[in-house]
Design a protein that fits this description.
48% helix; alpha/beta; elongated; 20 helices; two-stranded antiparallel sheet; 9-stranded mixed sheet
């Protein structure tokens, strides 16, 4: 077990921050048994020593008790600098919730550091021929090694534990038509679509909708408001501002305040902001950002930019990047949801794969991406002549039933994608097959065929809207919205007409 310097740095800093928030005496006593030598950073050794001294004296760990002792331990912290250093650590996290996780990591790495030092000492003694001292050094190594790796094991549950588990009803960000949760907490998800189709805006709209409690693509969001962090290097400050200003324009003051408290987004303003790859020289920036914000939901846009080698065809790199980003987010919030915005392959043939049997082949590059996410939302153009119209569907859903493909249309003023009332999924499939033409003979024939189905049902006695919808749902397996659209086709194609009371039909 070894640790990258950036990883070790993160655990040391966050352990100290959690310790300042700890209110449990037993947890404090346990944490203060960590040897000072477990810290690789000399400055943090000093701060931890000051904390141990304050705790031993029975004092609360705060800016005064720790800062005063820190100034006596190291003159560099005199003149109020000790107070500022302690305050900085305290403000970097909100709670002591992850204290034990960071403590376990530091204990393991501290022992490994001691083992390495003793191994070097033993090697030196052996080279000098001092066999007696060498044997004693080996005994010391055995004592230090006792218990190393004891915390490294798989999580195993017995049958009864699993049977007794209560599945949370609201354990996600959205509900499908069956009231099941989508974008479950602690999971990894993807939003996939061709370049420029509107993925980033839809992801931003998902964040705003969840925080403020409005629907997203005609699906209900689940409250309360979660804290969102959007990381991305593709969209400029101007683009982000334009979308946010439009989306926030008509919000009530209390909704705006919810967004101020819970929505945070990276704005690419410097050369460093353009690099979001998960690699050695960028890990500190990632960990510091996640630790400072403490997000419940992390959105990475685009996924390709997070890869160290920027190669979405490299299955190993795709897997490693997803695992590392999820692990970093879960170190800060164990139930954080991580959403990757990823490019789909382009072209008409590939657009048609947004739904149907090939929907899991929609994402660009290695299929490892789709295999690792629990939920994949596919975004495709809805109309070849109107870039503001999109189809939103499910490419993969491990934990809930996929929702029926939705049509949405962009409101240029509010920047929201609203429900596209005239959207017909079957007609869209025909259009894609015909090259995206807006007026294809196949699409017109399909509408007439649906209109004739309604004609026959009305003729058979299903002559009011309620009966028609119920019969089409039961006999044809159509969703409620699609069944109602069939009725609209019947009226437009003049195979039925309303008569008498509203919702009553007769054939033509």
């Amino acid at each position: 077990m070894s640790a990258e310097p950036a990883v070790l740095d993160f655990h040391e800093a966050t352990f100290l921050a959690c310790l300042l928030h700890c209110q449990d005496d037993a947890d404090l006593r346990d944490a203060c048994t960590l040897p000072v030598e477990a810290f690789s950073n000399p400055g943090r050794r000093d701060i931890y020593t000051a904390m141990k001294q304050a705790n031993a004296a029975g004092e609360t760990l705060d800016e005064f008790s720790v800062g005063t002792r820190l100034a006596k331990i190291n003159p560099l912290y005199e003149g109020g600098k000790g107070f500022k250093a302690v305050t900085s650590y305290y403000n970097s996290v909100d709670t002591a919730a992850m204290l034990h996780m960071h403590l376990d990591r530091l204990r393991e790495w501290g022992k490994l550091r001691q083992l390495k030092d003793r191994q070097l000492k033993a090697t030196d003694l052996l080279e000098k021929g001092d066999l007696e001292s060498w044997r004693e050094s080996l005994k010391e190594m055995a004592k230090v090694a006792d218990g190393v790796g004891v915390n490294q094991r798989f999580t195993i549950r017995g049958l009864q534990d699993i049977l007794d588990y209560k599945i949370p009803p609201d354990h996600g960000l959205l509900r499908n038509e069956n009231n099941e949760a989508l974008f479950e907490f602690g999971s990894v998800a993807g939003i996939v679509g061709p370049p420029g189709v509107g993925k980033s805006r839809l992801a931003l709209q998902l964040a705003i909708s969840q925080i403020t409690g409005r629907t997203w693509c005609d699906l209900k969001t689940i409250g309360p408001a979660r804290k969102w962090l959007m990381i991305g290097n593709e969209n400029s400050r101007r683009r982000i501002a334009r979308d946010l200003q439009g989306m926030c324009k008509s919000l009530a003051p209390e909704k705006l305040q919810l967004l101020r408290d819970n929505l945070f987004t990276q704005v690419p303003e410097t050369d460093d902001d353009m690099v979001i790859a998960v690699k050695g020289d960028n890990m500190t920036r990632w960990r510091n950002t996640l630790s400072r914000i403490g997000p419940d939901v992390v959105v990475i846009d685009p996924f390709e930019a997070a890869l160290e080698n920027y190669d979405v065809n490299d299955a190993a790199a795709v897997r490693d990047t997803i695992q590392r980003l999820a692990a970093m987010a879960h170190e800060v919030k164990p139930e954080a949801t991580v959403i990757f915005i990823h490019h789909a392959r382009t072209g008409q043939a590939n657009i048609s794969q947004a739904t149907g049997f090939d929907k899991d082949n929609f994402a660009k590059g290695s299929k490892t991406f789709t295999s690792m996410v629990r939920l994949q939302i596919n975004i495709a153009p809805g109309d070849a002549e109107d870039f503001g119209k999109l189809i939103v569907s499910v490419g993969k859903s491990n934990d809930a039933k996929p929702f029926y493909p939705q049509g949405v249309a962009l409101d240029e003023e509010t920047r929201y994608y609203e429900k596209w009332d005239e959207f017909d999924y079957d007609e869209w499939k025909l259009k894609v097959g015909e090259g995206g033409k807006s007026k294809g003979g196949g699409a017109a024939d399909a509408r007439k065929e649906k209109a004739m189905i309604v004609h026959q049902l009305v003729k058979a006695g299903h002559n009011n809207r309620t009966k028609l919808v119920a019969h089409m749902k039961e006999s044809l397996g159509l969703p409620d919205k699609t069944a109602r659209r069939y009725i609209t086709y019947g009226i437009k194609e003049r195979t039925i007409r309303e008569c008498g009371l509203p919702g009553q039909f007769t054939t033509i």
